[in-house]
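Subject: Acyl-coenzyme A thioesterase PaaI, contains HGG motif structure
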Amino acid sequence: MRFPTYQDLDELIKRPSITRRVMNLWPPFAGASISIRHISEDFRHVRVRLALRKLTANYLGTLYGASLLSMTDPWWVMMLARNLGRGYQVWDKSAQIEFIAKGRGNVYAEFRLSEQTLAEIREETRDGAKHLRWFTTDIRSASGELIARVNKEVYVRERLP
């Protein structure tokens, strides 16, 4: 039996069901009670939950702000990288969070990537040009109340041969 290579693992996590399981076991998410509820087959829709537990509550009994930001961390980059393919570099550049209401229970974030957005990015990055794009993600309670809004700036560049 041989140890899996990076290429083996990369091929494996192209499957959304495996990616979801792996990310749910990833220590930063598991330790923060962040769970991935859904990843679509085309990697264009992701739904994530952050559970309020004793270990995820601050001294006021509400969710830690850093955990709210953390639950949104890899998704835009991962979704773009999977949809644009190996011919593109995709990195997080910056993030901002606006706290709107107290997180007193489980909260959810949804990420949706449209074909129009992908087409715009491909057009903007033709010939190796860099493209910076902001994505907004609302974090909501189970009842739909807006808890926080996260803005992430993502860097994209087409790799030239």
